[in-house]
């Protein structure tokens, strides 16, 4: 039977698993797979496992309990190994990397920041600051622009949107990075100019949250900052 993997810890990590339940219905009992000075918290993997609310909450409860007691490498929901023996082999084969990651994540949490700027506000700024775009826009609105001019207008505006969003993202990162141990950027979805995860010392999480709020205030009502966390540091495992 496949082995469901919740997290990797040091072998000396407190493992308060008695009152926790694994995934599945009925819940799978939790156990550990030890390999030298590392251990994986695992259970049997139920057939047809899906991200049902009960199972996701069970997975998160195990991670929260482990992280409360020290450095933990959290695995994302649904990670499976062929069996306990091969999980142990994987721990031994990559033990140096796992130990380095545990040392890096010890005492840290993750925050994810998604930031967007109001599209209309951005377009008004672009039109106001570019004579060429303003002229093409006026010709398009009046119906005087030809097909080539309409295409040129779209390309110019798209280029300005991308450039200004990138500049704003870099400015935001420059101001927030001093409060973080590391950052991991992802491709922003449509409508966003920034999607980034920060690795933050748990002891300074409140300071980081205030820094994000200050930055949101600085950028004004046209920008929306959505901060999620603290989270297990999935993005840095």
Compact overview of the structure:
By secondary structure, the protein is an alpha+beta fold.
How would you sum up the major sheet?
5 strands, antiparallel
Uncertain segments of ≥5 residues (pLDDT<50)? Answer: none
Range of strand content: 15-25%
Helix/strand-derived category reads: alpha+beta
Using the CA coordinates, give the radius of gyration: 24 Å
Count of spatially separate domains = 2
Shape: elongated
Instruction: Count the beta strands.
Output: 9
Q: What is the tally of helical segments?
A: 7
Order of helices and strands, N to C?
EEEHEEHHEHHHEEHE
Mean pLDDT: 91
Q: Roughly how much helix do the residues carry, as a percent range?
A: 40-55%
Distance between the termini: 26 Å
């Amino acid at each position: 039977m496949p082995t469901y993997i919740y997290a990797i810890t040091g072998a000396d990590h407190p493992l308060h698993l008695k009152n926790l339940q694994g995934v599945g219905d009925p819940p799978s009992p939790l156990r550990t797979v030890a390999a030298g000075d590392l251990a994986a918290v695992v259970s049997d993997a139920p057939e047809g496992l899906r991200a049902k609310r009960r199972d996701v909450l069970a997975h998160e409860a195990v991670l929260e309990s482990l992280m409360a007691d020290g450095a933990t490498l959290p695995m994302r929901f649904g990670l499976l190994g062929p069996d306990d023996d091969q999980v142990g082999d994987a721990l031994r084969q990559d033990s140096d990397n796992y130990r380095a990651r545990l040392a890096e994540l010890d005492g840290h949490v993750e925050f994810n920041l998604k930031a967007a700027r109001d599209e209309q506000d951005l377009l008004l700024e672009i039109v106001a600051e570019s004579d060429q775009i303003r002229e093409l826009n006026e010709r398009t609105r009046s119906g005087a622009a030809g097909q080539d001019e309409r295409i040129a207008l779209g390309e110019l505006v798209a280029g300005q949107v991308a450039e200004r969003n990138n500049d704003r993202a870099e400015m935001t990162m420059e101001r927030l990075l001093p409060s973080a141990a590391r950052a991991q950027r992802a491709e922003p979805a449509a409508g966003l100019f920034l999607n980034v995860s920060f690795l933050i010392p748990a002891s300074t999480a409140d300071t980081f949250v205030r820094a994000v709020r200050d930055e949101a205030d600085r950028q004004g009502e046209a920008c929306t900052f959505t901060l999620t966390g603290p989270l297990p540091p999935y993005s840095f495992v």
